[in-house]
Amino acid sequence: MRQRTRAHELETLSKRDFASRIPLDWVDRPIDAADDYGIDRQVEIFNAGRPTGLELYVQLKATDQELARAFAMSLAAKHRDHYASLALPVLMCPFHAPTGRMFAKWFHTYDPHYSRARSPEGAATFTFRWEETDEWVEHTPERRRDAHGGRAGQRRAGHDRAPGLRAAAPTKLRGLAEQLGH
Fold it and tell me: Which of 21, 35, 77, 161 has the fewest other C-beta atoms within 10 Å?
């Protein structure tokens, strides 16, 4: 007899929680598990029923770990390289099952140079970190305004986005960040 594992339960919880948090004018599209290369959802943002042209990818994670440990997740280096190559920004969203809290942080804010424990060159994994301030709360969009200030918003040599996003990035991503509250 087949059993449903805790990992599958956590995955379901993260999907349900994410869907319950996004605004009604965001269209949330699951990415087929057979095609899942580290991206779980694609979201298209509408405003007053009209498409804005803004889209993003979402990578959901879920854990039962102690909250302090849940703020750092080891991920495959192949995912880091894949996310950096995508034309759409990737929102990293871990769900902490024991507390029912979700966190959200743009992948493009990851900078290995500033990582607490830098991975050696050629390492198979890297650590992505969140902080308490990355919690996705009901009024997040009204409380935060610009994720693209400071080091997080500067493009690093060799880590530029896809060509189609370069021209739109300053305006469109800033607006997207405001809607997400980051």
Answer: 35
